[in-house]
Amino acid sequence: MSYYDTVIRNGTLITPEGPVNADLGIVGEKIAAIGQGLQGREVIDATGKLVIPGAIDPHVHLEMPAGPVRSSDDWVTGTIAAACGGTTTVIDFVEPEPAPAGPVETLVETLHATSLRRALAARRAEAEGRAVIDFGLHMTLLDAQPETLAEIPAVVAAGCPSFKTYMTYSMKLTDDALIAAMDAVGRAGGMVMVHAENDAGIAYLRRKLIEAGHVEPRYHPISRPASMEVEAIERALALAEAAECPVYIVHISTGRGAAAVAAARGRGQVAFGETCPQYLLLTDAEFDRPGFEGAKFVCSPPLRKPEDNAALWRLLASADLQTVGTDHCPFFYRGEKDLGQRDGAYPPFTRIPGGMPGIEARLALLYTFGVRAGRLTVERWVDACATAPARIFGLYPRKGALVPGADADVVIFDPDREVVLTHARATSRPGASHIYRLHENCDYTPYEGFGLTGWPALTMLRGRIIARDGKFVGQAGGGRFLERGDG
Ligand SMILES: [Zn+2]
Fold first, then answer.
1. 49 C-alpha to ligand 1 centroid (Å)
2. What is the per-residue pLDDT across 101-141, written as a single tens digit (0 to 9) for each?
3. Counting beta carbons within 10 angstroms of the beta carbon of residue 303, is it exposed (0 to 12), middle (13 to 18) or buried (19 or more)?
4. Which residues sit opposite 12 in a β-bridge?
5. For residues 460 and 466, what is the distance between their CA atoms, to the nearest angstrom?
6. Of 213, 237, 343, 408, which has the highest C-beta tally within 10 A?
């Protein structure tokens, strides 16, 4: 009889083939076997628990520069929060400098020719030795100049086959640049990710609102209506179809936008859609909070209507919408979200740093409001949070599923553990035995007071336990950069 380093015994394994009551055997950093009666030097009892692959968050922004501030979770704090919530891999972004416009001297051209790769190396170096879980990087494309596009095959070869583009903000690509980028990425065997909103329409609406004195956070969603997302998603899909490039629409907030991606897939296009917990669980009613509190919920695209929540859940359940990422991009409410406050007057909504925390609770939110609420099967929950991101982003079968040969990234999930989420540091509130203090480095959570049933009891990264009962027990720098294939 062979002995494994670790055996997780008596749990319900959620495998690609469905739930299985079996033991999981681990040797070194790998899952070695799934079977009955496995023997191990270490035995972990998982009676009554779900045993699932470590979750993969395909969309996070750690220590991302945003004007005068940086997103408040760094590679250490952000990945510790992720680990405590059952996430063992994140994919963040490289934000290179834009290429200089117009003709350049030969020397400058030569220097620029390595800029995407230099930016990738720099971002990777920033995370290495600090991230506590494994991480990959998407490359942001800020222009489609020939020297930038010429670098794409080398970036793909460096393990970074997904390219983020924006149709809005100052880093937007116009349609001619976007289709050129898609053409180049498609030929290199990569995929383009798109933040899809109609920039010109939004710019007009913002100006009109500000001129009318409508500057409070509640006007943020009015300046970026659903139609502006839907149009841009349709346009991104059309450009990708023409360029024959796989496309992934990030953070879809509207039912209509998600349906557009599903329709493209129905026609045979290689297209994927992602939504986030905030678009499934919150609505634009949050922007009507008293004072400036609505600023906490300012992100783009904005929170939508209950009908959108319902439509996104339906499309997620049927796998017409593939993944749930967080778009974790936290800023402190005091001093960051309200930056520019003068004499008691708050800045207009256009100057609020966009983004919210969310890296820690994604898996558990989706369990309580998805699986327990009867909206998702347990298999679809694991798929949306782990397997589908792994497949789409070139990590499968190394990550994202409980299969022999995969990295032993494993979460033992206690489906009966009750927690009440808070950002607050103090945990001595009376009657607060279930209070769970999030590890995210932020002074609020959009999920304050949410009661959940189901939380990870244990998180394992490549065979080592890194979090237990909401406490981080791993070490800084335990995470590795993942060179991804083209999926
Ligand atoms: Zn984002």
1. 33
2. 555 444 444 454 459 999 999 999 999 999 999 999 999 99
3. buried
4. 21, 50
5. 6
6. 408
